[in-house]
Structures are given as structure tokens and as C-alpha cells.
Design goal:
Blueprint (H helix, E strand, L loop, with lengths): L8 E8 L2 H11 L3 E8 L2 E10 L8 E6 L12 E9 L2 H13 L4 E3 L18 E5 L5 E6 L23 E7 L3 H11 L3 E2 L4 E5 L10 E7 L13 E8 L4 H10 L8 E2 L3 E7 L5 E9 L24 H4 L15
Parallel strand pairs: 1-4, 5-8, 9-12, 13-16
Antiparallel strand pairs: 1-13, 2-3, 3-4, 5-9, 6-7, 7-8, 10-11, 11-12, 14-15, 15-16
The structure holds zinc ion (ZN).
The site of zinc ion has 6 residues, from strand 1 and strand 13.
Length: about 325
């Protein structure tokens, strides 16, 4: 087995009960590019929406499965409860506070004295901005000064210097912190930076840049976790394509159950539940979202991988129409 190294966050997948509202919020207000409109490959009667930078680069792929009308969930033990994003400056945090408030979204600055930052306090990464999506999923934007390239989507109203630049990481409530830490440190190659902060240092490959990912473990609340709208379903860490089979062996060797390699067409996936309850995926860096659509028109039509093309006529009429994304394209 060669030296294995994961390259930060690949994507984070969540649940929504309202695809049209979700597109309005993430593509319209937050300025993310809808890079793929497709269906859930495990249940092709519902949407799977992917938001990203211009290319849908691993490191900025926020995805949502739609279960129309599903009730709001609540993060608890064994779940990720917050998604962390990067911007380039403190002026960008001001910009987002203003834009979100103008869009009717309540925000908090980590420098505010007020308690109750959406249940859990701000991440100890300096000046940050917190807010929730319409279904209660919490986000926190921080100022990133590290070496990773910014991953930036284009939007008619948002100046590129203020655009969200991709994932910084996520915060989770582990249901078994000690063993979660062993999996992070001994199996996946994270470094313990203390106080629940874990760092995954990526290495550049032939056709991708190095990316750093961060995972924070928080004390779980007493209340039971309720999966549903506004919760995170899983987090995927980025694996170089050539290392993917070895990653499966490495995780399996610990005795944890891990799925066979599943071809998701846009990338290959492996899934395992870490013992603290959070569903982890290892996803390959590539082939990517431009494999079945022209780069210029990503996300504009319903994309179905070849194995699903035969069900287009049954599936497409039953999906609710979503807003026209070209209105936000420059
Ligand atoms: Zn996934």
C-alpha cells in the first residue's frame, strides 16, 4: 500500500424538503453555482442538487437530497451540525452580513456579545459570521488566510472578491468522541490540533491542488438527533483516484464496515459510518461534473447518468420545477 493522503473535504450532502426554496437560497442569495441538477441515485424519484464554484471542484460541492415536504430535523449526537466556509477578508464578512440581512436572513458576528449562536458558539477561528438556511441548517463563514486556492462561483450581483471560496470544514457532535478521534487520527490521517480541532492536510496531485480540511468535535446536546430537512446527511473526504481502492482496504482493515466502491458517475464513492455515528464518504477527485454537460451550461437541465437515462420519462415530470438559474449567471 502506497502512502495515502486525503485532500480535504470533497463534498457535504444535506437534506431539504423544498428544492425550489433551496435553489433560491443557495444559488440566488449565497451565489453558489448549481453545477448539477440530477436525481438521488438510491431513489431516482427525488432531486439531488449540487452547488459549487464555477467547475464544481471538490472542496466546494454542497449537495442536497430533496424529500418534498419532509419535516425539519435537528442535529444531535452522531451528526454534523454546522458547515464552515471561507471568504478572503473581514470586508467580505461585512458584505455577507449586509446581503443576508437584506435577504431576510438573521446573522450573528462571532464578535457579538450575545449568547445563543444558533445553539453552539462560534468556531474559535477569529472573526466569523453565522446564519441559518430557511430550514435551520447552520453555516459559519470565516476569514481564510491559509495556502489553499479560493474556489469561486460567479454571480451577477456578487463581487468576486467577496464570493464564498469553498469549504473550510465542518463541526460535528460525535456520539463516541474517543473512537471518532482514533478514526480521524489513526486511519484517515488527521492531525489533532487540540480542543476538538482536527486538521486534514492535503497533498497536491498531478491534476489537483492541495486542500486543507478541518473537522471540529463538539459536546453533543442532550436532545435526541432527528434527521430531516436542514440536517447534514454525510461528509465526503477527497481521495486521489489512484488511492481509492487502497483507502477501502485501509478502512476495512480496522474492522469497520465499508461499502464496495460505488460508481456515482461524477466520482466514485465509498461509505462507512465512523463509530461516533457520522456517515463518512471517501470520494474520488474526478472525473467531475463536466463529463455529461458543457462547462458553460452546467446544472441547467436534468442530468441523468447513463444507467438512469431510461427512467427520464417517468422521473422528470414528477420533479418540482426550480427557479431558472441562468438569471444569476454573469
Ligand atoms: Zn456523497
Amino acid at each position: 500500500m502506497t502512502d495515502l493522503s486525503l485532500n480535504g473535504v470533497h463534498h457535504i450532502s444535506c437534506i431539504t424538503g423544498d428544492a425550489p426554496g433551496n435553489v433560491e437560497f443557495y444559488a440566488g442569495l449565497l451565489g453558489m453555482r448549481l453545477v448539477k441538477k440530477t436525481v438521488n441515485q438510491d431513489d431516482p424519484s427525488v432531486y439531488h442538487l449540487f452547488y459549487g464554484d464555477e467547475k464544481g471542484t471538490p472542496g466546494f460541492d454542497l449537495t442536497f437530497f430533496e424529500y418534498p415536504g419532509t419535516r425539519d430535523g435537528r442535529a444531535g449526537a452522531g451528526m454534523i451540525h454546522r458547515i464552515l466556509w471561507r471568504v478572503g477578508s473581514s470586508e467580505s464578512l461585512d458584505y455577507w452580513a449586509e446581503r443576508l440581512e437584506a435577504g431576510g436572513v438573521e446573522t450573528r458576528r462571532s464578535s457579538d456579545e450575545e449568547a445563543g449562536f444558533f445553539g453552539v458558539g462560534p468556531t474559535g477561528e477569529g472573526d466569523t459570521l453565522l446564519f441559518q438556511d430557511p430550514e435551520g441548517l447552520t453555516h459559519e463563514i470565516l476569514i481564510y488566510e491559509g495556502p489553499d486556492e479560493p474556489l469561486v462561483p460567479a454571480h451577477v450581483e456578487i463581487p468576486p472578491e467577496h464570493a464564498i471560496q469553498g469549504f473550510h470544514g465542518a463541526r460535528a457532535f460525535s456520539g463516541n468522541r474517543e473512537i471518532t478521534e482514533q478514526v480521524l487520527g489513526l486511519v484517515l490521517g488527521f492531525t489533532d490540533e487540540g480542543e476538538g480541532k482536527w486538521h486534514l492536510a492535503g497533498e497536491a496531485g498531478e491534476d489537483f491542488e492541495a486542500r486543507n480540511g478541518f473537522y471540529f468535535l463538539d459536546e453533543a446536546p442532550e436532545e435526541r438527533a432527528v434527521p430531516g430537512a436542514g440536517t447534514v446527511h454525510h461528509i465526503a473526504w477527497a481521495s486521489p483516484i489512484d488511492q481509492h481502492p487502497d483507502w477501502r482496504e485501509k478502512v476495512a482493515a480496522t474492522g469497520l464496515y465499508i461499502t464496495p466502491v460505488i460508481d456515482r458517475f461524477y466520482f466514485k464513492a465509498l461509505y462507512f459510518r465512523e463509530p461516533g455515528g457520522v456517515l463518512f464518504e471517501l470520494a474520488t477527485i474526478g472525473p467531475g461534473f463536466a463529463t455529461d454537460e458543457d462547462q458553460e451550461h452546467l446544472g441547467e437541465r436534468l442530468s441523468l447518468p447513463p444507467d438512469f437515462e431510461s427512467v427520464r420519462e417517468q422521473v422528470e415530470p414528477n420533479l418540482r420545477p426550480i427557479p431558472d438559474i441562468t438569471q444569476w449567471r454573469p
